[in-house]
Design brief:
The chain has a single domain (5-265), classed as Neuraminidase. The protein has no helices and 24 strands. It is mainly beta and 276 residues long. It has a four-stranded antiparallel β-sheet, with no helix packed on it. Strands 2-3-4-5 form a four-stranded antiparallel β-sheet, with no helix packed on it. Strand 20 and strand 21 form a beta hairpin. GO terms for molecular function: hydrolase activity. Residues 13-244 form the SMP-30/Gluconolactonase/LRE-like region domain.
């Protein structure tokens, strides 16, 4: 059994962890804050983002991209977050998750219905190319959630929470998606995911974090005391697994500060390590 330690608590609704420049960055959707925390637990509020959800990643040029409501923002060299691409024509609802590949293609996804409480509709995956052009590249996705791009930029893997599966797409040279296929069927709906250097994925799975390989074999399970919303690999050598967890009541209203970031050491570093 792994030694799981707490890095930070007092979070309202943590999501979207990313390891960047020696710290774990994540969104607190409940507090509407972007937070960075170091391995000693010292944390800093980087920005305040008036949106739920909002997610972020880094482009190859080092600039941070933030998806909030129906706009993709970009942090400029002076540190100011400015609107970059208006996505109003692509979506009625706000966008959920984001991942940027090594070529600068930005994949974003949209659940396409009001959650929680709204009537389910399939969602979709969008693409914003480095020149700021946006389009839908995959439809019929059952509550799209966490995403990863393989280090060779050839495959996008998307968590479908309502289909309890990880779904893979081939990535064409222009960023288009095709060849949709089941990557892994899970016992529960995935949320935030992270790929390691052996091609396995760490996925949230209720009050667990699991390591699963292509085909669906679960290689390891880490039991937790509250819902795991997302996983990320980082640390100095890429072998620290971070798990962002929250007590989940099924509602985004009247949330208490019960969110925590846990971490443990693993044997396989993150895919493409060192990361951004």
């Amino acid at each position: 059994m792994r030694d799981v330690k707490m890095l930070m608590d007092g979070i309202v609704l943590g999501e979207c962890p990313r390891w960047h420049e020696g710290r774990l960055w994540f969104s607190d959707w409940g507090a509407k804050q972007m937070i960075a925390v170091d391995m000693d637990g010292r944390h800093e509020v980087i920005d305040r983002v008036d949106a739920l959800p909002f997610s972020f990643d880094w482009a190859p040029d080092g600039r941070q991209l933030v998806i909030a409501k129906r706009t993709l923002h970009r942090r400029e060299e002076n540190g100011v977050l400015k609107p970059w691409v208006d996505l109003t024509d692509l979506a009625e609802m706000g966008w959920n998750e984001i991942v940027v590949d090594a070529r600068g293609n930005t994949y974003i996804n949209n659940i396409n219905f009001a959650f929680p409480g709204g009537e389910f509709k399939p969602g979709y995956v969008g693409l914003v190319t480095p020149d700021g052009q946006a389009r839908i590249v995959a439809e019929g996705v059952a509550f799209p959630n966490g995403m990863v791009v393989t280090p060779d930029n050839k495959t996008l893997i998307v968590g479908e929470s309502f289909a309890t599966s990880l779904t893979a797409f081939d990535i064409a040279a222009d960023g288009s998606l095709s060849g949709r296929r089941l990557w892994a069927k899970l016992d529960g709906g995935p949320d935030g995911i992270a790929m390691d250097a052996e091609g396995a994925i760490w996925s949230s799975a209720g009050e667990k974090c699991i390591r699963v390989k292509d085909g669906g074999e679960v290689l390891e399970t880490i039991d937790l005391d509250r819902f795991c919303f997302a996983a990320m690999l980082g640390g100095d050598d890429g072998k620290t697994l971070f798990m962002v967890c929250n007590e989940w009541t099924g509602s985004t209203q009247n949330l208490a500060r019960t969110g925590r970031v846990y971490w443990t050491r693993v044997e396989v570093p993150g895919a493409g390590w060192p990361g951004r």
